[in-house]
Every structure is written in structure tokens, then in C-alpha cells.
Write a structure and sequence with these properties.
By secondary structure, the chain is α+β, with helices and mostly antiparallel strands. Among the domains are: about 150 residues, no CATH class; about 120 residues, Maltose phosphorylase, domain 3, CATH 2.60.420. The protein contains 32 helices and 20 strands. The strands form seven sheets. A five-stranded antiparallel beta sheet has the order 13-14-20-16-17, with no helix packed on it. Strand 8 and strand 9 form a beta hairpin. Helix 1 runs antiparallel to helix 5 and helix 16 crosses helix 19. The relative contact order is 0.11.
């Protein structure tokens, strides 16, 4: 009874503390401020058309607001068929954003450690270490909410596996099913993919261990039940997983029809795109020293440690110099797990006897190897070519979420072990079951001493353990200085100033990490030596961990990251106002005043040829690379040279790809009227000829040569749909769009003879159906990306409708999620009934 009471008190304290610390970290939310998140701003822009129809009571599954058109369920769709969405929404919105996500990180990791028989007090310190692992704070600041959301539920899945195989089959299965169904609903399958390596390693280890213990039948029962729960969780998310899988074939995660750049291509994303953000091998030391590679990409002159290391004149030389010198193109901040936590993890590897540490260690090492990406090309290419799904995900450095989960888990399992064994330091050390002549205390000193020695070496000899320029950066700066007239001595002096500043930043954090290693090690040694109250150990360790992780996290998310809610709204510019006065029902806009294809704010008010999304259509991405970008470069070149009106018009007349996309307006400056393009092809037109080619390569090549208003180019595989028509010049026949809806485009044609109509709409073979006067006709593809259909002579009504199976898929999700909920309630009742029956007299007396 005392143990249960202590557990309940600990759980209550843990919950309250998690709430308080989550809000404390983002305290501006208490004043009504909101977090400025680049990705969320982009999301709001891209999802505005979807939201507008939602306000009318419609759920649209296609949007034309971004990249000239793409499925809306990839941009913003609520999958309400899974009834667990209500639990998910309530959980993450328990506290104001982003406090709610930090709270989930803490609470679910707390659950994991409790499930692994840790006590609430050490579990709370572990929850702080996990939740404030710096990478999570960095991606929160950037707006990667779905990624943090997905990571937050992973500890619960591991907890479910542990309980099912080790403690209680039914409770563990229920936990696993509950956490997995919400993890998948969180909408970032890349995180679940990385976790699968840990899950598989754990199950294999349990199979071996339980077979050795003579518990093979229990392993089979647990595995079957876990498998059933996995099927139910997947089924509950069927509508999301099905639509995502269907789309992936056509997205940049699918296979290209083009053969150019073959060495870089995979069955999914291009190798260079997957590995663009590859963690440097030595950069892995940020686990222990946050500024091992300088921290975030920013101006180093903002760092007082850097400027304090150089003289007055030299301070000016640091302006504009990148604070980050790692292998990645840029960095929002390091993956810092905590210096003290890392020491506890090393101690756990030696002292924790549970076989659990082996799958956790193996999964961590494997995902660290994955995170190195382009720095280990043979391994990465093997994974990209042979391992299922690996080439579907970008930013391989994200694989470090697994060590971010594993290292704190093992670290605080060690703390729980010494918490439960106060005489730990006096015992003889054992390894693989063999007793050593050394005591545990002696081995503790050896491990702590080695890590301390490494950090001292880092501090004394920084140049021997680190490089202070990223790959090629030294030569680039040297060449740039010489091109500006600097001699060798001047250039060398400038580079020395940069190196001096960066070394100072590095050494400061080495010293800081050394302090936290000594504080943590000293606390553990004091507990072993003086056997003081175990709750003092827990509380002091919590304070050390909190001060370490909290202070580093504040480097990347502080009050400056917040703004008034009113400031965060989208406001019309002069250019927006001018464009929105156009009465045409459907046209597109190219915003050249921003990064056109990495910015979706334009989509808030307009149908944009650009946008921001990590999974745009592959064909559209290829059109950007080979068709749109070259035309925009020509546009910039002409406009940058003070052209005449005739030169501008001649230019726009020859923007064949942009014209076929109906790009009617170019925003050059948001504060001035836009440039209008009078030469667009319109919403639909009748070309006078079709050039048939043998493959996609030829189609793309020919597209760059033709006048898209008069000529269409098509792959021969579409001859059955749009071939066999005798075309020619025709100034009499007409076709025009008469109604616009994202999922229903209506046109009216009047042709003297049978024609092929080309539509300025994106070709997407899933779900789009075309009818002429109510009769379905096949849809062909021309100009690599546009739709085309045969149109009979005479006057006709043409309709394109997006007929998705989404509603039927939602019904499947609903059925599975109801079944899963009933099973979970049944399992909870099964476990709770004996307890309440046993204590019924006590409840009655009360």
C-alpha cells in the first residue's frame, strides 16, 4: 500500500511539474503571444483555400493554391474517420502551443521510465532530459510541429512493448495499440520508420531472452497480440496511410520517368536530396558539447564569447561570418543530449544488467550511422537501393531521434538502479556475469575519468580534435578575399580571426560540459560514498539536468521567437490588392519577390505556381528544374537591364512554360503593382498540332522548343486517349472555363471539327475524371504535366471532377478505430475489475 501511495504521489508531482516546466519554457504564451514558426506560416498560406471551403462546410481534397495544383490531403486534411483523433487533439492542446507538445514529450517519456520500473522521481529527471533534448527545441522553433508530435508518442510505444513482453501481456498490448494508433495519426511516418529499427531490435532480443528463460509460449502470445494491435492501429489510420501511399508514387518520393541524372536517382527521392542534411561524423560530439560545430547558422558576431576572443578591430571582421562550421548546408542548432546524461548513459552500458540495453544500443549506433548520410556513401547507397522505404525520406540527420530517446532512457535506468541499491558502490563489479577484482565505485571512477579526460583534451588541444571551417569554406573565403585584392598575409590574418573566434565558442561549451559531467559524477559518487537520502539524489539530479538542458534550449527558443497574435496574420500588399481585383475565375501568380518555390505565403491569397512542401509532385519539380526556372532566369535577366516595353512583351510572349501554366501575374515587389502577362494561354485551348515522342525525356526536351499555344508534345503511350485526331489551325473554334471549384472544373467548347483540348491544370491520374455532356472520356497528358482530352465537334460541356475514394477509406478507418477502442476498453476493464472487486468493501465503507 505504501508503494502504491508513493507511486501515486510521484505521478501527481510528475504531472504537475511537467505542466509547470512546459509553460515556464514558453512563458510568453501566457501573455497571449504566439510562436513564430516558418513552417507553420508556410502551412497557413498553403492551406488557406482548404480552410476557406471548410468554413463553408466542405472538405476539399484537391487545392490549386500551390504548385499549380496538388492533392489537398497532403497539405491539410483532418482524418476524422480515426476516432482517436479526438484524444490526440485534446492531448496536444492541453496547454497553449508549443507548451502542449513539450508536455507530451515529458509525460510520455515519464510513462516509459515508470513502465521500465523506474521510480517517479528519477523518471521526472529523465523526462526533462528527453523533452529538452535540443533538437526538439530547434525543430519546434522552426515549426516542425508534426515531427515533434510524432516523436512525443514513441516512448509510449516502447513502453507498451516492454510491458507486454516483460510484465503484463494485456496491459502492454493495450499501451502499444493506444500509442501506435496516435503515433501514426500524428502524420510524420518518417519518425515511425526510424523507430521500427528500435522496435525490431527489441523484439529480437526478447525472443532470444525469453527462449533462454523457457518462456517461448509467452513470447508467441505477446507477439501475436502486438501484431493484432499493429494491424488495428494501421487500419484505424487507413485513410491517411492509403492516400499518402497513393500520392507517394507521383510525388518527389516516387520514381521518375526521366533518365537524366541517373546516378543520383533512386526509386524514391534523389540521393543528393535525401542526404543534403547529413550529420557530420565528428558533429555527433554535439551529444556532449552543444557548440562542437558552432550551434546554429547565424552571425557569429552576435556571440559575445566569439567577439570577446578577438581585438577591437577584429570584431568588425566577424560580421557576417557563419557561427556554424559543420558538414550540413545550414543548421538550426545541435543535437545536444546533455553532458551529464551522456555520462549516466556510459555508466548504464556497464552497470545496467538488463538485456534491454543491447537492442537500445544497437538501434542507436545504427541510426547514428544512418544520420551520417553522404559521409558514409557505401552504407547510405546500399540502404537507398535495397532497404524498403529508406529512399522515401529526406534529411537523414533526423534519424538521431532514436539516440535522443535511447540515451536518456538508459541513463535514467542506471539512476533507478542505484536509487534502488544504495550499497551499489561497495559491490564488486561484474561484466558478462564475471566478477572483477574492482569495485563498482572503482569502475565508476574509470568511466567518469575517461569522459573527463576527453573533455580536458578537447579544451587544451582544440585543433587536434576539431576543425573550425566547414568543408571547402577555408578555400572559398581565401579565394573571395584575393578576388577583392587582399594579399596572402591579409587573407591569412582574416581566416585566423575567424578560427580564433570559433575556437573560443567551442572551448566555452567544452568547459560548460565538463562542469556538468563533474556535477553529475560528483552527485553519483557522493551517493555511493555517503549513502545520503535517495530523494536528495533524485531532486539534485533533476535540478542539474534541468539547468543544463533548459539553458541550452533557450539559445534556440526564447522570448524573441514569439510575436503578438495580430502580427502573425496575413496582410494584403499593394500587389495582392491589384491582382485580386481581376474578375477572371482562374489564373495563376508567380511571386518573384520571395523564394518562389520555397515560400507558400503567396498561396494565402492566390493560386500560385510556387509554394512550400516537402512532397510536391515529382513531375512538377522536374518542370521547375527544366522548364520554369530557366524561363524565370531569362525574365530576371531582361527586367534587370532597364528594358523597353517591347522587350518585356517579346520576353513574355516566349515564356512558353509559364504561359501554359496560365501565369497571368508576376509580383516583382509586394509594394508595387504586379507585372501583368497578356500572353498566357488561358485556362484551356485547342493546339493546332501534337508532336508525339517516344518517352518522357524526349517530351521534356521538346517542351523547351515548342510554342505551347499552337503545339502540344505528348508521350506515345497517351495515343489511345488523345490520338487519331486530324488537327490544324482553327480561328473559329472556342473553349473557355465557365465555373471554378477546386474539385470541379467546368468548361464550354464550341468546335467546328473534333479537337484535342489542352487544359492549364495539373495531370494527376488518381481520382480525376473527365466527362463531356455527362459521358466519361479518357484523360491524356501533354507538355509533360498538363491534362488533355478529345473534344467532339459542336457545342459541349466539359467537366473535370475529383472523385476520391477518401470517404470510403474514412469508413474503413472508422470501423478499425471503433474496434480498437472497444478492445482497449475491454483490456482496461479486464485489468481493473479484479482490483475493484478485491477492494469493493473498502470503497463501500468510504
Amino acid at each position: 500500500m505504501k508503494t502504491n501511495k508513493e507511486l501515486l504521489i510521484g505521478l501527481g508531482v510528475g504531472f504537475i511539474f511537467s505542466v509547470l516546466i512546459s509553460i515556464l519554457f514558453v512563458s510568453p504564451v501566457l501573455k497571449g503571444k504566439v510562436l513564430k514558426q516558418f513552417d507553420i506560416t508556410q502551412y497557413k498560406g498553403s492551406a488557406q483555400e482548404v480552410k476557406t471551403y471548410e468554413e463553408k462546410g466542405e472538405k476539399i481534397l484537391w487545392t490549386n493554391s500551390m504548385f499549380s495544383g496538388m492533392p489537398a490531403y497532403i497539405v491539410s486534411t483532418r482524418y476524422s474517420g480515426n476516432i482517436f483523433n479526438a484524444i490526440h487533439s485534446a492531448a496536444k492542446n492541453t496547454l497553449p502551443h508549443p507548451a502542449g507538445l513539450i508536455f507530451l514529450l515529458m509525460v510520455n517519456f515519464f510513462v516509459l521510465l515508470i513502465a521500465m520500473k523506474s521510480n517517479p522521481w528519477t523518471a521526472l529527471a529523465g523526462a526533462v532530459a528527453f523533452a529538452f533534448s535540443t533538437y526538439f527545441i530547434v525543430i519546434l522553433a522552426a515549426g516542425h510541429n508534426a515531427k515533434v508530435d510524432a516523436v512525443a508518442w514513441l516512448p509510449g510505444i516502447l513502453a507498451g512493448l516492454y510491458v507486454a513482453y516483460r510484465r503484463n501481456l494485456w496491459v502492454g498490448a493495450a499501451m502499444f495499440g493506444f500509442y501506435l494508433v496516435i503515433e501514426l495519426y500524428a502524420g510524420h511516418p518518417q519518425m515511425a520508420f526510424y523507430f521500427s529499427f528500435l522496435g525490431v531490435a527489441f523484439v529480437i532480443t526478447e525472443a532470444i531472452g525469453l527462449i533462454i528463460e523457457g518462456k517461448f509460449l509467452h513470447f508467441v502470445k505477446a507477439s501475436v497480440l502486438i501484431g493484432v494491435m499493429a494491424v488495428l492501429a494501421i487500419g484505424s489510420n487507413w485513410s491517411y496511410l492509403k492516400t499518402t501511399n497513393d500520392y507517394s508514387k507521383y510525388s518527389i518520393r516516387g520514381k521518375s520517368e526521366l533518365t537524366s541524372g541517373g546516378e543520383d536517382k533512386t526509386e524514391g527521392l534523389d540521393r543528393s536530396y535525401v542526404t543534403m542534411w547529413s550529420n557530420g561524423i565528428s558533429e555527433t560530439w554535439t551529444f556532449v558539447v552543444p557548440n562542437f560545430k558552432g550551434g546554429a547558422s547565424d552571425d557569429i558576431s552576435k556571440n559575445s564569447t566569439a567577439t570577446g576572443a578577438v581585438s577591437g578591430k577584429e570584431k568588425q571582421m566577424l560580421k557576417g561570418v557563419n557561427a556554424y562550421w559543420g558538414d550540413q548546408p545550414s543548421s538550426g542548432g545541435p543535437v545536444y543530449i546533455g553532458a551529464g546524461v551522456f555520462l549516466l548513459f556510459l555508466l548504464a552500458l556497464f552497470f545496467v544488467k538488463d538485456r534491454l540495453k543491447w537492442p537500445l544500443l544497437i538501434a542507436s549506433l545504427f541510426t547514428i550511422l544512418m544520420s551520417w548520410g553522404s559521409n558514409v556513401p557505401k552504407f547510405t547507397n546500399f540502404m537507398l537501393d535495397k532497404f524498403p522505404l529508406y529512399n522515401k525520406f529526406r534529411a537523414v540527420a533526423s534519424a538521431l531521434i532514436i539516440p535522443e530517446l535511447v540515451l536518456p532512457a538508459l541513463a535514467f535506468l542506471f539512476v533507478a538502479y542505484i536509487f534502488a541499491n544504495p550499497d551499489f558502490g561497495k559491490k564488486k563489479a561484474t561484466i558478462f556475469g564475471y566478477e572483477l577484482s574492482l569495485s563498482n565505485q572503482s569502475v565508476f571512477f574509470m568511466i567518469t575519468g575517461i569522459l573527463t579526460f576527453i573533455l580536458i583534451v578537447f579544451y587544451i588541444m582544440p585543433g587536434a580534435v576539431n576543425t573550425f571551417f566547414s568543408a571547402g569554406e577555408y578555400d572559398e573565403i581565401m579565394a573571395s578575399l584575393k578576388s577583392m585584392g587582399a594579399n596572402d598575409t591579409q587573407a591569412s590574418d582574416y581566416l585566423n580571426v575567424i578560427e580564433t573566434a570559433r575556437i573560443a565558442v567551442f572551448k566555452y561549451d567544452v568547459l560548460r560540459s565538463l562542469l556538468f559531467v563533474l556535477l553529475t559524477g560528483g552527485l553519483v559518487w557522493g551517493y555511493m560514498r555517503f549513502n545520503f537520502n535517495k530523494y536528495i539524489l533524485a531532486v539534485v539530479l533533476l535540478l542539474i539536468t534541468f539547468s543544463d538542458m533548459f539553458s541550452v534550449g533557450k539559445r534556440y527558443l526564447d522570448a524573441s521567437n514569439f510575436e503578438d497574435a495580430k502580427t502573425a496574420t496575413f496582410r494584403k500588399t499593394t500587389a495582392d490588392d491589384a491582382i485580386l481585383r481581376d474578375s477572371d475565375i482562374n489564373y495563376r501568380v508567380a511571386n518573384l519577390s520571395t523564394s518562389t518555390f520555397s515560400d507558400a505565403t503567396t498561396s494565402y491569397f492566390h493560386k500560385s505556381i510556387g509554394g512550400y512542401h516537402g512532397a510536391k509532385l515529382k513531375k512538377y519539380q522536374e518542370l521547375i528544374e527544366f522548364g520554369i526556372t530557366p524561363e524565370l532566369e531569362r525574365l530576371f535577366a531582361v527586367l534587370g537591364g532597364k528594358p523597353t516595353q517591347e522587350q518585356v512583351e517579346n520576353l513574355m510572349m516566349n515564356l512558353q512554360v509559364l504561359n501554359m501554366l496560365n501565369t497571368k501575374y508576376f509580383i516583382l515587389n509586394p509594394n508595387t503593382p504586379p507585372l501583368q502577362n497578356p500572353y498566357v494561354n488561358g485556362n484551356a485551348w485547342f493546339p493546332s498540332e501534337i508532336k508525339w515522342v517516344d518517352n518522357a525525356d524526349a517530351e521534356m526536351a521538346e517542351l523547351q522548343k515548342i510554342n505551347t499555344r499552337n503545339t502540344a508534345v505528348a508521350d506515345k503511350k497517351f495515343e489511345a486517349a488523345i490520338g487519331g485526331v486530324s488537327l490544324g489551325k482553327d480561328s473559329v473554334s472556342t473553349i473557355k472555363q465557365i465555373a471554378y471549384h477546386p474539385e470541379k472544373m467546368e468548361y464550354e467548347s464550341n468546335a467546328a471539327t473534333e479537337k484535342v483540348a489542352v487544359f492549364s491544370e495539373i495531370w494527376y491520374p488518381e481520382s480525376w475524371v473527365c466527362t463531356i455532356d455527362g459521358n466519361e472520356v479518357p484523360i491524356g497528358r501533354v507538355n509533360y504535366i498538363l491534362r488533355a482530352v478529345k473534344v467532339p465537334a459542336g457545342k459541349h460541356k466539359i467537366e473535370f471532377s475529383f472523385n476520391s475514394r477518401f470517404k470510403s477509406d474514412e469508413k474503413i478507418s472508422l470501423g478499425f478505430s471503433i474496434l480498437l477502442l472497444l478492445i482497449l476498453l475491454g483490456l482496461v476493464g479486464k485489468e481493473a475489475y479484479p482490483y475493484f472487486k478485491k477492494n469493493s468493501d473498502t470503497f463501500k465503507s468510504k
